[in-house]
Each structure stands twice: as structure tokens, then as C-alpha cells.
Write a structure and sequence with these properties.
- Keywords: Heme, Iron, Membrane, Metal-binding, Monooxygenase, Oxidoreductase, Transmembrane, Transmembrane helix.
- Pfam families: p450 (PF00067).
- By secondary structure, the protein is mainly alpha-helical.
- The chain folds into two domains: 37 residues; 386 residues, Cytochrome P450 (Cytochrome p450, Orthogonal Bundle), CATH 1.10.630.
- It is built from 20 helices and eleven strands.
- The strands form five sheets. A three-stranded antiparallel sheet has the order 1-11-8. Strands 2-5 form a two-stranded antiparallel ribbon.
- Helix 6 runs antiparallel to helix 13.
- The termini are far apart.
């Protein structure tokens, strides 16, 4: 009897497993047939595997035969009231006028950067420019945001705990994108458990704690009516805005500040390292840029205003080309098709469907940027009709490193200020020679929200010399 019962149980288990496998197979087959042949989007050309699922290659961007006639063609969004409220409060602090007011603080970080670089000039040791740029960008954005820099430029070998842990966490960004509940689950765990699972979380907690403490200090300072210490910060701007009370909690302001620090550090670092590598790697580009800088600043330590730097045509197009090949973010940006749907080449994208595009494919469109893998600042220059050279307005339409529309990068003016100041200083004051560095140190290898170079590369490393007067 026991044998018969055991046999029946085993048979039922087999039937149950077979049933589940059959159902799963049927469900996947039905889903594949619908997505590939019956879906309203099935008429659009492209790899059939990509039509069925994107999960097999989440870190690679796949190219389709959908090309947009202009950089705003697919960027249609519905109302996002919360984003509008938050963005309205932030906009004044990132205006060009406000960045100009804080220009002396950016120059102060530039000066500290140069003092550290001079140490490598004296010792003749290789300098990791990528790490140095990372420290510079973090120190600028934290000074700008909190009135209190992290002072990463003071660290030995330009080590930045925040930069290191950001690189590590971005390696998991696709898992978090598809399974967002994982991040919430990890945050709910005790700190010591988080540390066991990922030591980087301890560093994240540390920096978040610093931010929260700064928010509390500024809120308390404001409530007591005390005189502001130092310069006005983003936190002061938000606390003086018309944001509702729930948007002014310590947690909310801390989260906003941490997002701004993350967004305003690695992107600038990458643009600077792309620019530096290609300028040093190409003698003609370096010669042309230096001649322009020497003409504008006869002495190594001459200073130009931001407005004066913007009038230097070759420096300006070098920056545009660096932005093109650094992309801003590499991940696809989703937009929602509007209520009436979106027509493209006679095909309808129904309302509510997500349409995504990315800067990588836009910036490598050979019809717009021929030989798109080549760093060529000259492509941006055009004649203004009087014999002078100006930046091509047509090409600027297709540079979406800062995105476009209502979701355009709020820190664009701060980013331009850093790029103009750092590159003009670096190539007016120093000569550089690449040290064991190839183009794979700055080329896009994979998309991890931000563009990442091939694993194993160590960034842009150079040997530094002072430029003679």
C-alpha cells in the first residue's frame, strides 16, 4: 500500500512539473508570436530577438532601422507635474548668471588641481588624469551644492571613495533597472548586513550621512535666522523656493543633493578624459588648440573670463566633439507616445508605448557625423560668411549629450564652465605625453547607464611637463 501511495505521489509530482513546463513553454511561445507578428510594433524592422526580449544583452545598445529626422522627433512626454515642480525650484541655481557668481569657487578647485599636478611634474611619475578629473568634478559639485567640498583633490593618488563605489554600483545598474525592488530590499537591511553583501554600500551610507547632516545644519541655520556661512548653495535655494513641505524634508533634500552630485561628477570626468586623450594623441589638434590659447593668454598664468573663453572657436569645437564622444549618458531614454499616437514613416506607434533613443546612436549617425568614430573638432566649424569661423548650428541640433526638452540636464551651464576652465588651463600650462594608454581607455565598451570603457583599462595616464612661456 505504501509503495502504491509513494508511486502516486511521484507520478503527481512528474505531472505537475510537466504541466508547469508545458504552460511556461506555451506562454513564452504565445508571447513571442504576439510580439514578433501581431503587436502594433511588429511592423517596425529590426532583429526579431530584440522584438521578443532585451534581457539577453542589457548592457549593449542594439541598432534598429528607425532613424529620427531631428533630435526631438521621438521625445514626446505626458505631463509630469512632480518633475516640473522640482525642476522649477532647481533652475535658478543652475542659470548661467548663478554659475558666474560661483566662478571663483570653480577656479579655486582648478588651482588646487594644478598644485597637485605640479607634484607629478617634479617627480616625473605617471599621472592618472581620469582619477584627477574625477576628484576635480566631485569637489566642484559638492562645493556648489553644499558649500562644503569633499576635498577629494587632497587624497593621495587622487583616490576618491565616491567615484570608486559609483563605478562599482553602476556595474549592477541593469539588474536594478529590471528588478528595482532589489534596491529597496537592500536598503531595508541593517547596515552591517549591507556591508557584508557589498562593502561599497558602507561608503554610500557614509556619503549620504554627510549630505543629511549638511541638510540639517542648513535647515537649522535658516530656522534660527542665522547669517549664512559661505556662499549660497542649492539647499538654500530649495529651502527658499515654493516647494510643498513634503519636498523639503531632510530625506527628500538629501536624495536630491545626492542625485545632483552623482550626475555632476562622473559625466564631467568622462568628457574631460575623452577630450584630454584625443588632444594629446593628435599632434595637429594639440598644436592648433595651443596656438589659440597662447594667442589669447600670452602668459601661462593669464586668466580669461568664461565669456572670453567661449569666444575661442577651436576650444569651443574641441569641447563639442568631446561631448559628442562622451555621450552624457549612454542608456536609452524612454518617452511615451502621446494620446493621438506617433506617426513615423507611415507607421503608427500607438498611444502609451515607450519610444527610446540614446545619444550613442545619434552621435554616430554617419549621415550627420561622417567618420563618427574619429575625434575631429573641425567638423563643427563653419564659415559665418565674413571669413570667420563659428560653431555649426546644424550640428549642435544633433549633440544631445545634455539631452533635450524639459528633461535637459539642469547642470549644463556648470558643466560648460568646468570644461572651458579645465581644458584651457591644462593645455596652456602643461605639455603631456600618453603613458601606456590606448583609445580603449576612453572608447565606449558597454552601456551601464553611463558609458564605460573596456574592463582592465586604467584611465588616461600621462607624463606631465610645464609648458615654457
Amino acid at each position: 500500500m505504501a509503495f502504491i501511495e509513494r508511486s502516486l505521489v511521484e507520478r503527481m509530482d512528474t505531472v505537475l512539473i510537466s504541466g508547469l513546463l508545458t504552460f511556461t513553454g506555451f506562454w513564452l511561445a504565445t508571447l513571442a508570436i504576439y510580439r514578433i507578428y501581431l503587436s502594433p510594433l511588429s511592423k517596425f524592422p529590426g532583429p526579431k530577438l530584440a522584438a521578443f526580449t532585451s534581457i539577453l544583452h542589457p548592457d549593449k545598445t542594439m541598432k534598429f532601422d528607425i532613424r529620427w529626422d531631428s533630435p526631438g522627433a521621438a521625445q514626446v512626454t505626458g505631463p509630469h507635474e512632480l518633475h516640473r515642480i522640482r525642476r522649477t525650484a532647481l533652475n535658478p541655481f543652475f542659470s548661467k548668471h548663478q554659475v558666474l557668481l560661483l566662478w571663483p569657487y570653480i577656479r579655486e578647485k582648478r588651482d588646487k588641481f594644478c598644485r597637485r599636478v605640479d607634484e607629478y611634474v617634479e617627480t616625473k611619475k605617471p599621472l592618472n588624469l581620469s582619477k584627477a578629473f574625477g576628484c576635480f568634478s566631485i569637489d566642484v559639485v559638492t562645493e556648489y551644492a553644499f558649500g562644503q567640498s569633499y576635498n577629494d583633490l587632497d587624497n593621495e593618488h587622487f583616490f576618491s571613495g565616491l567615484s570608486e563605489v559609483m563605478d562599482e554600483l553602476l556595474g549592477r545598474v541593469h539588474v536594478i533597472t529590471h528588478l528595482p525592488w532589489i534596491l529597496s530590499a537592500v536598503r531595508a537591511l541593517p547596515e552591517w548586513v549591507q556591508g557584508l553583501l557589498n562593502p561599497g554600500m558602507i561608503v554610500v551610507r557614509k556619503y549620504h550621512g554627510i549630505t543629511s547632516d549638511k541638510v540639517r545644519d542648513i535647515k537649522e541655520e535658516k530656522q534660527k535666522g542665522e547669517k549664512m556661512a559661505g556662499h549660497k548653495t542649492i539647499l538654500h535655494e530649495l529651502l527658499e523656493s515654493d516647494l510643498p513641505s513634503q519636498e523639503l524634508s531632510v530625506k527628500r533634500l538629501s536624495d536630491e543633493s545626492n542625485i545632483l552630485v552623482g550626475a555632476g561628477s562622473d559625466t564631467i570626468k568622462h568628457t574631460l578624459e575623452v577630450a584630454a586623450f584625443h588632444i594629446v594623441d593628435n599632434a595637429m589638434i594639440q598644436k592648433t588648440l595651443r596656438e589659440e590659447l597662447v594667442a589669447a593668454m600670452p602668459s601661462r598664468f593669464d586668466e580669461l573670463t568664461w565669456a572670453e573663453l567661449e569666444k575661442l572657436p577651436y576650444l569651443s569645437v574641441v569641447i563639442q566633439e568631446a561631448l559628442r564622444l562622451s555621450y552624457g549618458i549612454s542608456q536609452r531614454s524612454p518617452r511615451i507616445s502621446p494620446k493621438e499616437g506617433l506617426q513615423y514613416k507611415g507607421k503608427l506607434i500607438p498611444a502609451g508605448f515607450l519610444v527610446s533613443m540614446d545619444a550613442v546612436h545619434m552621435h554616430h549617425n554617419e549621415n550627420i557625423f561622417p567618420n563618427s568614430n574619429e575625434f575631429s573638432p573641425e567638423r563643427w566649424l563653419e564659415d559665418d560668411g565674413s571669413g570667420s569661423k563659428i560653431i555649426s548650428k546644424r550640428l549642435q541640433r544633433y549633440n544631445i549629450a545634455f539631452s533635450r526638452g524639459t528633461r535637459q540636464c539642469v547642470g549644463m551651464n556648470l558643466a560648460y564652465a568646468e570644461l572651458y576652465l579645465m581644458l584651457s588651463t591644462l593645455f596652456r600650462r602643461y605639455e603631456m605625453q600618453l603613458y601606456e594608454t590606448g583609445v580603449d581607455s576612453v572608447e565606449l565598451w558597454g552601456d551601464f547607464f553611463l558609458p564605460k570603457a573596456k574592463p582592465g583599462t586604467e584611465g588616461v595616464r600621462v607624463l606631465m611637463k610645464r609648458l615654457s612661456e
